[in-house]
Amino acid sequence: MMLKLGSTTRPWHTWTFDQACQSIAHAGYEEVSIYSNAGQTPITSASTPAEIAETVAITKKYEIAPTMLLGSPRLDLSLGDAVADFIKLIDATSAVGCPWVMNGGTEDKASFDKYFEIMRQTAPYAEKKGIQILLKPHGGLGLTGHDLANAVEKVNNPAFRICYDPGNIIYYTKGKVRPEPDVDDVAEFVTFCIIKDCIIKENGEPDVWVLPGEGLVDFPVVLGKLVKAGFSGPLHVECLGGSELDDVNERAWKTREWLEKILENL
Question: Would you say 169 and 177 are in contact if contact means Cβ atoms under 8 Å apart?
């Protein structure tokens, strides 16, 4: 089986968005997820048409498809203002050509209800625009697969789904929960998957800045379960390790080849 492979711009976070897209394309990926680069976020709820056009032009230059935008609801605003702001983010997501906009929820328990209400009020608009809002495991209300499935039930709209990140399951639980059994709780709601590994260092602290395949995640098992549940991709790389451009680029190439071999055997 072959699913579409892409990469987030995070492995190249210290370089420009242009450089990240160039590296992603040269490593053989088809798609890009738009994160922050060189201290700047290319697309936000406040992006102008000119800024959106510039971002689109860069992806076209390197012939990669913008697929997912990283952007969170403004929980610091009033409910009404937060809803209005997130709708603007959905519009920006649509304008840049991404079918998905992804966020990590919140770890602030006092904001859980507000988060879900923002999602409930904006999901119908996203559905009309052909956009899916994705929640990614990031601690707090999305700590485990069970929590992620619970979030889907709370929002109760097909435009709100899950971006599964097996490395984050290990990271935010410090290894107490493993993604191989955890994914069973949420697989039916997963429409996007992040490729990120994780190790637990000798001091007990987790680290995701490693090459996929060299950490604790059993990717063939996780991806196999997702595919069995109906998942059809895409898969986007988020962390590769490395700090020098040539090294990161080489890791991106190796990871793509490694992923292709896994998918061939699913």
Answer: yes
